[in-house]
Amino acid sequence: MDYSETIQWLYAQLPMYQRQGKQAFKKNLNNIRAFDTYLGHVSQRFKNIHVAGTNGKGSVSHMLASILQEAGYKTGLYTSPHLKDFRERIRINGRMIRKNTVINFVKRHQKFFEKHRLSFFEMTVGMAFEYFARKQVDIAVIETGLGGRLDSTNIINPELSIITNIGLDHTNMLGNSIAKIAEEKAGIIKPNTPVVIGKKQADTSPVFKRIATQKKAKLIYAEMQKFAIYESDLKGLYQNENLQTVSAAVEQLRKMGWKISEKAVKNGLKNVVENTGIRGRWDILQRSPLVVADTAHNRDGLSIVLQQIFQTPHNHLHFVLSFVNDKDLDGILPLFPKNARYYFSKAQIPRALNEQVLIKKASAYGLKGQSFSTIKQAFETAYQNAGTDDLIFVGGSTFTVAEII
Q: Per-residue confidence at 167, pLDDT binned at 50, 70, 90?
């Protein structure tokens, strides 16, 4: 198989969460543990930092990787999902894994995949861990895919665990309360391993305290610390909280003996996009009209993005929106302004919410607009309708943004 055929084969295996949703969620780590053993326990052959959370975990992972890279460490970075190319998920010092490496990995282990019925995510995690071990990275930043306790990444023994914040998302899999979701995320806390908590929340603090005490893990609340906050090239308002979390993580790493200078922190935060290739976080695609894309996709994330939209000078507002079918639209749609033009669509994935269902739901909240069968069509219409001083926002899901960037 060539690269394109290899990727299509990966996607066609057992359900892929990003495409199908709940049916792809595994209830145990048996498969990934078996795969890790088969690969020679690669998960234990490189140092790492583990990052979970409802919002911000991707940004925090990229920021930390950029800082560690600037500090001179050979830095692996595993994140999900990708926007354009599968290889965005697996990087070393910002460079994506090579196409041939992906092809050869699948070719070598295809029989194991088929025999043990590995999911797309399990295969991808194994690929990342084997790559980081073989390339002998100094450290890797590993972002969880979903939750924490049962996430395939949760077979590592990190130097440091980070939980950014907890919000109501993926409730059909992680639980229908903040406390239950916190319990799942707290599954990444390891014995005698410090954990940085990005945000102190009334419903989550008792959960984290209980589990950290049981594991004898040092608990650090980022927002309780005071740090010099450096400027970052990630310009979303929500990044302020993420910057605080990253600062607390860097401080803890220094205490553990990692050499990270102030210059590395400053340059790392200033060059996150260049160093790591991150996209889709208050991503300004054009200035006139102003076109902004953002992958925020739940109530907590979108409320801050909308706050920033309202603070950004503009004449008229245009929203190009699509969502996946398991989002709490009754919690999300009331956040959007009624005096804007809407262009409703659906991403080209099986899990996308039908645009006719979306327009009907939105109109119940006073959001008026048109529906389109493709995001490209929706965006082109918004662009034609927009004046030079208008603002076009593209979002609602990672997949909406992926089709426009």
A: confident
For residue range 262-315, list pLDDT tens digits in order.
999 999 999 999 999 999 999 999 999 999 999 998 898 999 999 999 999 999
Q: Which domain, by its residues, includes 216? A: 3-276
Mark whether 317 and 226 lie in a shared domain: no
- What is the structure's pLDDT at 165? 85
Examine the domain organization and report whether 136 and 20 are in the same domain: yes
pLDDT of residue 388: 97
Q: What is the pTM of this model?
A: 0.93
Residues 6+ apart with CB under 8 A from 44: 156, 157
* Alpha-carbon span 150 to 175, nearest angstrom: 13
Position 23 pLDDT exceeds 70? no
Domain boundary among 276, 291, 323: 276
Is the previous residue joined to 289 through a cis bond, with omega within 30 degrees of 0?
yes
Q: Which pLDDT value is given to residue 21?
A: 47
Tell me the CATH number at 287: 3.90.190.20
